[in-house]
Amino acid sequence: MKRSADYWIHTLQLTPHIEGGAYARTYCADLIIPKNQLPAAFHGPRPASTAIYFLLQKDEFSALHRLAADELWHFYDGDSLMVYEIDAAGTLTEHRLGNNPENKENFQSIIKAGSWFGSKIKEGGHYSLVGCTVSPGFDFADFEWGERRALLQLYPQHTELINALTR
User: Fold this and answer.
1) What is 111-146 written as a DSSP string?
2) What whole-number distance in Å separates Cα of residue 5 and Cα of residue 13?
3) Interatomic CA distance for residues 98 and 118, integer angstroms
4) What is the pLDDT at residue 25?
């Protein structure tokens, strides 16, 4: 039986996420890493790891942003999700999350700390339910929005993507 986005939003008690879509935090490690043991990009102590459920629907996108930590994405249900990553050199990588390896989809993809990234449902899809695990753990103090004008100046070769995944 194929479930709907509304089913998952209700069942998992997902709430709106500022970058788009809906989410619920599912884990925050008890182990805390002190700021003096973290790289300079972190603005305070962090849990060793955090995790969320994240759901996007067909007319939504996760806006370009970057984190101070690596983020591991996990596919759970629904349609394929495209996660677009632009590294510091301007190289674009398209991560395909899904359950169909014949279509070059993977159950997991990693986004490296400091890369710009955003996501949207693969063309023709209705929703995608994924999970995101961040280590050291996520904190909004380490979250940076992708500003359209600045990103277009840095990466003009990705104009169409930047325009599509920024607000």
Assistant:
1) E-TT-EEEEEE-TT--EEEEEEEEESPP-GGGEEE-
2) 12
3) 16
4) 97
User: Could you tell me if 110 and 71 are in contact, meaning their C-beta atoms sit under 8 angstroms apart?
Assistant: yes
Q: Angle at CA 133, nearest 5°, toward 57 and 17? A: 40
Q: How confident is the model at residue 141 (pLDDT cuts 50, 70, 90)?
A: very high
Q: What's the CATH fold of domain 5-116+126-164?
A: Jelly Rolls (2.60.120)
**Token couple for 14:** 């997902």
Concatenated DSSP letters for 60-106? -EEEEEEESSEEEEEEEEES-EEEEEE-TT--EEEEEESS-GGGT-B
Q: Where are the domains of the chain?
A: 5-116+126-164
- pTM (predicted TM-score): 0.95
Which amino acid belongs to residue 140? F
CB atoms within 10 A of CB 29: 15
Taking the C-alpha atoms of residue 3 and residue 57, their distance in angstroms, rounded to an integer, is: 13
pLDDT in the model for residue 2? 82
Question: Between β-strands 22-28 and 15-16, what pairing exists: parallel, antiparallel or unpaired?
Answer: antiparallel
